[in-house]
Predict the 3D structure of the following.
Amino acid sequence: NAGVTQTPKFQVLKTGQSMTLQCAQDMNHEYMSWYRQDPGMGLRLIHYSVGAGITDQGEVPNGYNVSRSTTEDFPLRLLSAAPSQTSVYFCASSLGGKGGEQYFGPGTRLTVT
Amino acid sequence: GNSVTQMEGPVTLSEEAFLTINCTYTATGYPSLFWYVQYPGEGLQLLLKATKADDKGSNKGFEATYRKETTSFHLEKGSVQVSDSAVYFCALRPRSGGYQKVTFGTGTKLQVIP
């Protein structure tokens, strides 16, 4: 049982490049989320999904796209990278219902130059 | 909207000292409350949780009690160890239907020195 996996662990992009951050979970969780973590700001929700084929925006969605074609996978796409997207990105999954805790991946550290 | 306020760090303690990290929240209804811990270079992992008023969550010697009257969920440990050095996040999750967006505090860094 691998839990939540993320690739790559580190990435450096030039401004304007695009890339996809991968996230997968093997716990059959219906909910998946992408967060970014910046110093002094805690975690901010980028996009989330409540099941295959269903996604919605969080509080900071601009510049990012998501899709969820399977229960297991929830990739995050950066369309045209900007230095403001330099951050650590975490994927999380959870069951629905009250009290459900989130399970986090190890994170991707992204630097945009 | 919902919000979580944590005491600012870093907090530096000597080994075996008593730890308190304050957390207060603003939310409608009765959210579930969580403490997550993040060790260097890793993702967050659940430390403990409480789902209703007066519940006490506990794990690995850490405790927190859901206080509805003071809207607080303070984290405590009686005797910290060097291995407890990490960043601690308080979080809440509403109970309304559908996807319940989790609100995180900004995190409190704890450093325990031998």
About this structure: Chain B is about 0% helix and 50% strand. Chain B touches chain A through 23 residues (CB under 8 Å). Residues 13 and 112 of chain B are 5 Å apart (CA to CA).
